[in-house]
Amino acid sequence: MGEKTNADAIRQRAEGICEILYNKKAQDIVAIHVADKTIIADWFVICSGRAVSQVKALADELDEKAPALGLDLRRSEGYTEGKWVVLDYADILVHIFYPEERKYYNMERLWDEGGGAIRYSEQQDIEAKAAADKRKHAKEENSMEEVELRGIVKRFAQSGWDLIAQPAKEYLDGADCREELVEAVRQADEECGSCGCEYDALYKRFLVLVSEQ
Q1: CA–CA separation, 50 vs 103, rounded Å?
Q2: Is this prediction's pTM over 0.70?
Q3: Is 145 exposed, middle or buried (0-12, 13-18, 19+ CB in 10 A)?
Q4: Quick count: other Cβ atoms within 10 Å of Cβ 116?
Q5: DSSP bridge pairs for 118
Q6: Residues of 153-178 as b/e, b for ≥16 C-beta within 10 angstroms?
Q7: Structural contact between residues 90 and 72, judged by C-beta atoms closer than 8 angstroms
Q8: Number of CB atoms found within 10 A of residue 33's CB
Q9: Which residue from 60, 124, 160, 185 has the least number of CB within 10 angstroms?
Q10: Which residues of 64-86 are buried (b: 16+ CB within 10 A; e: fewer)?
């Protein structure tokens, strides 16, 4: 139980490192569990910077923020050249590559034999796209509902019944009277009851639409 808890804590720290790197715009972040392959670490976190300056900036960012994850830097190598920086956090080794060096050494091929690595950047990009698509869909739905809502309000404005016609006209003219219009429609709906007229259905649809916004 204790070993599992410790392993889970180390994994969470590895994912925390991935998050720090991702937020700093590191490319193609991968976390590989290597505890069954080597004694030097439990996890390798591998990523790329677009330029030497970014490789160094990513190393600096980790140096600043890793202590908040409970990680102490034991040693670092390669910072001066900025082509392959290694940061040793005991259970986790972080490899920050310049693109050409990463392609040449191809650590994923060497260490991720089973294909079980956490492809952090891919996961985050997929989640971000899904969230963006969801927001876009919701916006489109809201836009369609708003068009329908205004169409109904136009019908109210043409009804000739001052109870709903006046607040409807003001609403269409841009007045801040949405609550007053909703209250007027509720009253009209109560007075109309279930008479089955064309406005009976419009009252109910209007109240549904405003409740969903």
Answers
A1: 13
A2: no
A3: middle
A4: 8
A5: 31
A6: bebbbebeeeebbbbbbbbeeeeebe
A7: yes
A8: 20
A9: 160
A10: ebbeebebeeeebebbeebbbbb
Full pLDDT tens readout for the chain, 213 residues: 456 678 999 999 999 999 999 999 999 999 999 998 999 999 999 999 999 999 999 999 999 999 999 999 999 999 999 999 999 999 999 999 999 999 999 998 889 877 789 999 999 888 888 877 777 776 666 677 777 777 877 887 787 777 777 877 887 777 777 788 778 878 877 877 666 667 777 777 777 777 665
- DSSP string computed for 149-169: HHHHHHHHHTS--HHHHHHHH
